[in-house]
Amino acid sequence: MPHGTTSTSGTTRPTPRSTARPQHRPAAARTTYGRRPAPRPTGPDPLEQLFTASAEAFDATAELPSFHDLGLPQPLVTALERRGMHAPFAIQARVMPDALAGRDVLGRAQTGSGKTLGFGLPMLTRLAGGTRESRRPRGLVLVPTRELANQVRDALGPLGHALDLRLGVVVGGAPYSRQIEQLRRGVDVLVATPGRLIDLLDRGEVRLDAVEVTVLDEADYMADLGFLPAVTQILDLTPAGTQRLLFSATLDSGVRRLVTAYLRDPAAHAVADATSHVENMEHRAYVVRPHEKLAVLAEIAQRPARTLFFARTKQGAQRLADQLVEAGVPATAIHGDLPQGARQRALGAFAAGRSRVLVATDVAARGIHVDELDLVVHVDPPADHKDYLHRSGRTARAGTAGVVLSILLPGQRRTAAQLFDRAGVEADMRYVAPGDELVRELAESGEPVVVKEEPRRSSGPRRSGPRRPGGRYRGERSDRGERGERSEHRGPRRPRADAA
């Protein structure tokens, strides 16, 4: 076993129960969970102990090996160097040896730690030189949202070209025709959201019997969105004994069952525990009067750098974006009520710098991965400390510094203090008003955004036919993943100074 890795040997797996199609996987090899809940463990959690041991064994001061030293093929190393990447991040250096060796992997790392390359580079390496077949991908990456699928494609697609590997993406909210066309041409790695992949399996447009490597990215988020039944159905259609890698920020009951049922003696890797925060992330809390909240937010939003605001509800996110625009700030909103095209345009404008301010809900922001983002503002503090950490993790990525600001009303101080304590962060609370020095400091902070040119729109054919509300075509399952977003169910919007 490689140095510094841990194993889950001896874990009892539940009795197999099949929901699979018999032509894809022998019945004896299928695994899923029984109907009876497993008894709650009375002692220390074995998986958490493995992660803790792995994190403690990690030497942050040790020199990391190069990509070449890790055994990646030279064309891939060259492609990485052309993109300015010469050495792996910590999670990549820890995961890659086991992943390259074909072991199952259970991984946990901080947001922005580079886990996409941690599973992607070994997958590309192991699939290089194989035969591409129509409708039969050899690598599968399951993700919870369209935005994250696009992020994985953008990160791995150019690297796959260096090894003559083709990546495909199938997600809800996009026309079937183009996705079916790419599957028929053949892809080596398929990045998919569960609902759309199930649709394509039902239509017979894709088979999973040739899959050699399967990755579950952000498995805890898929569990939160209720995708685990689809995930287990998909996993049961992949061949038994093939490699599986699972990455999750937490090990709640649904994710734990996935690990037990589908990972064989995995190597567990973590460079931080589930609730740790990034060291170069500064946490602040400003307490404002209700009637001055919008003015403080608008002043901060005037800063020259990108700023990501978090609202608790879809209506709250859209309302704040509209109010900021009325105040002269070029802001856009992203939430579950927006059609897929509008969400992609909003993300693209924010990433390219054409819009410096983005207002998002928790769910919609999961696909936001912008390296040059140094300020996250919690307009509405979340109820759960995990949501606070997930939100905050949009900044201070890849070794950069960032500030996380919570805007509080006087009556929220005690609840916020408890939230910070559970999240393991220290945030000094200060009373502020519009124009105060602390507010001006943030409003003037950050490097001006360099605006990238807007890409030309595709002139390809558009999908025709009846559409359902929300931008979906008839017969299409939704992977929107916004069922976790709250709706205020209010009447017509009224202009209010404290409505942020």
TrEMBL record:
Keywords: ATP-binding, Helicase, Hydrolase, Nucleotide-binding. It holds the Pfam family DEAD. One of its GO terms (cellular component) is cytosol. InterPro entries: DEAD/DEAH_box_helicase_dom (IPR011545), DEAD/DEAH_RhlB (IPR044742), DEAD_box_RNA_helicase (IPR050079), Helicase_ATP-bd (IPR014001), Helicase_C-like (IPR001650), P-loop_NTPase (IPR027417), RNA_helicase_DEAD_Q_motif (IPR014014). Residues 1-48, 444-500 are annotated as: Disordered. Residues 65-93 form the DEAD-box RNA helicase Q domain. It comes from Vallicoccus soli. Belongs to the DEAD box helicase family. It comes from the Bacteria. This is DEAD/DEAH box helicase. One of its GO terms (molecular function) is nucleic acid binding. Residues 473-500 have a biased composition (Basic and acidic residues). A motif (Q motif) lies at residues 65-93.
